[in-house]
């Protein structure tokens, strides 16, 4: 979760430096998506809403596209759609990007996609029931939803910092698990897996650590050094093929931390649904 993304998302299209936190997050998410797509033999995927709380917008599904999966994205900002298309064109990857003002209706035929998913984006949906009914209609094999860890210390801190934005621009009730689990059960979907994900050995502060330390008057503890930009775009463009290995070095904490630690330290949690019976 990073409340500032609501205002500064455009800056990442001119400077794709996402920092260590979002970069690690992307590799961990890619690894989970790879397992999911292999298991369910995914060929077509829909990411909607595609704008979530992480760095450069619209690239969550690039990893899937690079592995031959047909990708469709949906966003509610026409300006952002234009910028996303430019990024995908620079990577020479095909993508279908659709606009929707409120995500109440999805302009696709029944059973179009094997997988539908979103990352930290469900709270941009105007009407949760309508959206999930549409998601159910167009999806055949799996629905994968990632939300911020609402029990996490980072979420609590950022919620305090962004009370106004949370109230006026987001629908927090949409990311309460019981709300979307209940709706999907009504629609014939069964929850088969839910776990914490994105649990590195640093807190989910959602801001540069220098600013975080300054809030508490501890900025003198930060050693001054030249900042090295970190961007997964270097990996996707072929400039840094070692990028995943560099990020996964930090996975040791996520791998070994017990559940009760992840409960208040993990940055996100995922929920995987499949049809309760064949559609």
Give an account of the 3D structure.
This protein has a single domain (23-275), classed as 3-Layer(aba) Sandwich (Rossmann fold). Strands 3-2-1-4-5-7-6 form a seven-stranded mixed sheet, sandwiched between helices. It has 13 helices and seven strands. The chain has 279 residues and is of the alpha/beta class. Helix content is 39%, strand content 17%. The model has no long low-confidence stretch (mean pLDDT 90). The longest helix has 22 residues, at 19-40. The chain is globular, with a radius of gyration of 18 Å. The protein has helices spanning 5-8, 19-40, 62-66, 78-90, 128-138, 153-161, 163-168, 177-186, 209-215, 233-236, 243-248, 251-256, 259-265; strands spanning 44-47, 70-75, 96-99, 113-119, 139-148, 189-197, 268-275.
Quick description:
The protein has 13 helices and 7 strands.
């Amino acid at each position: 979760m990073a409340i500032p993304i609501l205002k500064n998302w455009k800056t990442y299209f001119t400077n794709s430096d996402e920092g260590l936190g979002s970069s690690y997050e992307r590799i961990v998410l890619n690894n989970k998506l790879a397992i999911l797509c292999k298991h369910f033999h995914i060929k077509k995927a829909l990411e909607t809403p595609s704008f979530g709380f992480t760095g450069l917008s619209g690239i969550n599904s690039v990893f899937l596209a690079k592995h031959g999966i047909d990708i469709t994205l949906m966003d509610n900002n026409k300006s952002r759609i234009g910028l996303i298309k430019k990024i995908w064109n620079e990577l020479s990857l095909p993508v279908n990007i659709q606009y929707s003002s409120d995500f109440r209706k999805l302009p696709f035929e029944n059973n179009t996609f094997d997988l539908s998913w979103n990352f930290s984006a469900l709270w941009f949906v105007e009407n949760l029931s309508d959206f999930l009914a549409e998601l159910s209609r167009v999806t055949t094999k799996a629905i994968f939803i990632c939300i911020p860890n609402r029990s996490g210390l980072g979420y609590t801190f950022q919620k305090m910092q962004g009370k106004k934005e949370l109230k006026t621009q987001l629908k927090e009730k949409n990311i309460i698990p019981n709300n979307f689990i209940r709706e999907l059960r009504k629609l014939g979907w069964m929850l088969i897996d839910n776990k914490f994900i994105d649990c590195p050995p640093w807190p989910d502060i959602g801001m540069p650590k220098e600013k975080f330390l300054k809030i508490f008057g501890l900025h003198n503890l930060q050693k001054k050094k030249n900042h090295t930009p970190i961007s997964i775009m270097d990996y996707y463009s072929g400039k840094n093929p070692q990028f995943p290995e560099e990020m996964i070095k930090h996975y040791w904490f996520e791998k070994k931390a017990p559940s009760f630690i992840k409960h208040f330290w993990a940055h996100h949690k995922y929920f995987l649904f499949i049809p309760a019976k064949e559609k």
